[in-house]
Design a protein that fits this description.
The chain is α/β, with parallel strands linked by helices. It contains 28 helices and 26 strands.
Length: 744
């Protein structure tokens, strides 16, 4: 039978390695090694960068559906050439797939779980049918509408390492029926389980004792939790659905959940990676969720209740040591209980920290002052303009009624507007680095487009996702190092000034930004390259063109690989100390110490070491360089509006930083850009004032002194030490800029 699987030859890889040096940022190799290098048991070590890129590219190129049908030699050769170009581009770090793809693409896990290639998802919290999905409770038919379904979707995707945005707007919450039943929940565990003592302390009871007292337990539902991700989801689904007549078909109000088979804490998780948390987080979550729903007896679940359930699920997922559980809760802008829910300090510290909260607005919304006051107080809520997302691509292309009409929310970082069940699908281009490496940017954006398009041909687990993905084929080609690129090619920032005008709707005086025409041309040409590549490839594949194509994700870990500024963000400072936290047992610490990097015990977390890395931003000494600590809030808004107008047809994720004296401008800037910016969030600029701050600005002299103390290359030292690397576990593939690297 003819071979239809594309592989990259070692001879080609060796040639690329001889001619191209990866554009590692000052944190790049360390970030890669601790985050994306998978363990190779047959070689008793973790991957090297060329091995990771080979795995990732082969995993992606073989998603081309035409390879399934005995492809012609011509097609096979064309795709092989494309795989080679992708390898060269990613290896050199001119561009890179999302962190999710860097970790999972090309693995057996990806082949079993197509969802794993997507970073983030969105789900509306309202009763829905499971459909022909990989998870379907045995008491339901696939068309049976259930309150549990969106919570199961969220739980499942978080357990796979994705982030989830969810909507608890009043339009959704009012569709949930009133709670009919109080459920008496009992959790049991066998004495032989290694988790016995810990779960008994949390309220579980001995299985044998329970069995003696319930010799004929016909008055209860008994559920034995399988030792799988799906088992945890199904346990929670059964608990939720028993509260409602429409899904409690046995009409019973006692639920017994047997957790005896769940693997204990510290057991290795095959496939995704990492180690198990044991059943303890599940026990806590089930008791907490049951308490919330029981208190809603004979009334409807509120938006706050639903958010609490999602947050408790997120807290449970994060209890494992490898998943990040990013959540964004989207509520109604008139829902004061939702807007103020984080003011309950006890619940905030217990579980409400698990989501960032935003409110949905439309074109008619004007009441920005309470939102601005909340942002000045605690950085929330953010805003998501669903009208703009539904009826606009790039703002420059004008109003297009329902061009993306099914949009109901966004992913947790806000760069992709999404329909119910839909994921974001990201790829990141570093245009400044690509130009340095003599790439034609049109070719780079073409390769990025085709990569993301193939991801939409994965095998997706949930019926609701398959339907919307195959319809929309949404992609999100992003850029990072945007400020580096613009400053290098223009010689200055893209906002060249402001002119005073009158807002014709409100009569208010506004300062309208003036953009460099060449900057407009640069991003417009890049956008057109993506659209042209998508149209060409969609025709060849016989599928729908992508409903939207471009974005600016906030970036984070991936941008650190190449040393680029994150997304559209300005560098935090020209020179700074970046602190990264490692578990005390991490084998990288020995190499870092030998190289001269300063480290100290983390003041916040036991058994954790905080390592300091001196960094210099590109163009730090340019007279036109600006950092997040010096650029005005007005220019940051104007820059986000620039990219939303001329580059992104999805959205532009940005965390705008502001100084204390700039807080009073937030309301007027929200008003000014209400017809341009689709989503945004703001945070005060701390400037390293926190103890062991993730980022601390320093002066050039301090940087040079710190840099001089680094006496060797970490990768070289690490290789020579040849330590046992089995502790190098996945920690995170966040594409979100949080200001810090997470603890491994």
């Amino acid at each position: 039978m003819k071979n239809s699987t594309i592989t990259l030859s070692q001879a080609y890889i060796d040639r690329v390695k001889q001619n191209i040096t990866p554009h590692w940022g000052e944190l790049g190799w360390v970030t890669y090694k601790r985050t994306y290098a998978r363990w190779l048991p047959e070689k008793n070590r973790s991957e090297n960068w060329d091995e990771t890129v080979k795995r990732v590219v082969e995993g992606n190129i073989n998603l081309d559906p035409r390879l399934k049908d005995s492809p012609s030699d011509k097609l096979f050769n064309e795709l092989t050439t494309e795989a080679q170009e992708l390898f060269k581009m990613i290896y050199g770090l001119a561009a890179t797939p999302s962190g999710r793809n860097l970790w999972v693409s090309g693995t057996d896990y990806q082949k079993r779980n197509g969802d794993s290639l997507n970073n983030c998802w969105f789900i509306a919290i309202r009763p829905q049918a499971y459909g022909a999905s990989h998870i379907l409770p045995d008491y339901l038919k696939k068309e049976h509408v259930a309150v549990s379904m969106p919570f199961s979707f969220l739980f499942d995707q978080l357990m796979k390492g994705g982030g989830v945005g969810f909507s608890v707007t009043q339009d959704n919450i009012k569709k949930i029926p009133q709670v009919d039943n109080n459920i008496d929940l009992t959790i049991i565990i066998d004495q032989d389980s290694d988790s016995y003592t810990d779960t008994i302390k949390l309220g579980a009871i001995d299985k044998k004792s329970w069995a003696k007292q319930n010799s004929t337990p016909n008055d209860c539902i008994y559920f034995e939790v399988p030792d799988t991700r799906e088992g945890w989801v199904l346990a929670n689904a059964r608990l939720i659905d028993m509260h409602f007549h429409q899904t409690n078909l046995e009409h019973k109000t006692k639920l017994v959940i047997d957790i005896s088979n769940i693997r204990p804490y510290g057991t290795k998780i095959n496939g995704f990676g990492g180690t198990a948390s044991g059943p303890m987080p599940l026990v806590e979550m089930l008791f907490d969720i049951n308490k919330i729903i029981n208190t809603c007896s004979n009334r409807k679940i509120s938006s706050v209740d639903a958010t609490d359930i999602c947050n408790l699920i997120g807290k449970t997922v994060v209890a494992g040591n490898v998943r990040r559980s990013a959540e964004l809760a989207l509520g109604s802008n008139t829902d004061q209980a939702f807007i103020t829910m984080k003011q309950d300090q006890d619940k905030l510290y217990h579980h409400r920290w698990a989501s960032n909260n935003s409110v949905a607005i439309d074109a008619a919304f004007t009441n920005y002052e309470p939102i601005a006051n909340g942002i000045k107080e605690n950085g929330e809520p953010g805003i998501v303009n669903l009208d703009l997302s539904q009826n606009y691509g790039r703002i420059i292309d004008g109003y297009q009624k329902d061009v993306d009409g099914a949009v109901e929310g966004t992913n947790p970082c806000g760069e992709i507007s999404l329909a119910n069940g839909e994921p974001c699908n990201l790829f990141e281009v570093f245009p400044y680095i690509a130009e340095q490496q003599n790439w034609n940017l049109k070719d780079v954006f073409r390769l990025a487009t085709r990569y993301t398009k193939r991801v939409t041909f994965s095998t997706y687990d949930w019926a609701i996702s398959r339907e919307i993905i195959y319809k929309n084929r949404r992609i999100g080609v992003s850029m990072s190092g945007i400020q580096d690129w613009l400053l290098n090619d223009l010689g200055h920032r893209v906002v060249t000034g402001f002119k005073e005008e009158i807002d014709h709707e409100t009569g208010a005086k506004i300062q309208v930004p003036i953009y460099d025409p060449k900057g407009i041309e640069m991003v417009s040409n890049a956008y057109q390259a993506v659209v042209d590549a998508d149209n060409e490839y969609s025709q060849a594949l016989g599928c729908n063109p992508s409903i939207k194509h471009t974005t600016v994700k906030p970036s984070g870990t991936v941008a650190k690989l190449a040393g680029a500024s994150e997304g559209m963000h300005f560098h935090y400072a020209g020179y700074l100390i970046q602190r990264i936290r490692f578990q005390a047992s991490d084998p990288l610490l020995k190499a870092l110490a030998k190289c001269g990097y300063y480290s100290e015990p983390d003041v916040y977390t036991p058994n954790t070491v905080c390592v300091e890395f001196p960094l210099r931003a590109a163009h730090a000494d340019s007279e036109n360089f600006a950092s997040a600590g010096t650029v005005s809030i007005a220019e940051q808004f104007a820059t986000q509006a620039f990219l939303q107008t001329y580059w992104s047809d999805n959205a532009v994720s940005c965390t705008i930083t502001f100084q204390n004296d700039e807080g009073k401008q937030i309301t007027s800037l929200f008003n000014q850009y209400r017809h341009i910016i689709k989503s945004t969030s703001l945070l005060p600029y701390y400037g390293g004032s926190l103890k062991q701050a993730p980022k601390e600005p320093i002066d050039k002299e301090t940087y040079e002194k710190r840099k001089a103390s680094i006496i060797a290359d970490v990768a070289t030292v690490f290789a020579k030490q040849n330590n046992d690397q089995k502790n190098l576990e996945l920690i995170d593939q966040t594409d979100c800029e949080s200001g810090s690297c997470p603890v491994k």
